[in-house]
Amino acid sequence: MAKIISLSDWRLRMPPRVRKEQVEAKILLFTGVRYEHLDTPDHRPGTGSKRAKGK
Question: Does the predicted model carry a pTM greater than 0.70?
Answer without folding.
Answer: no
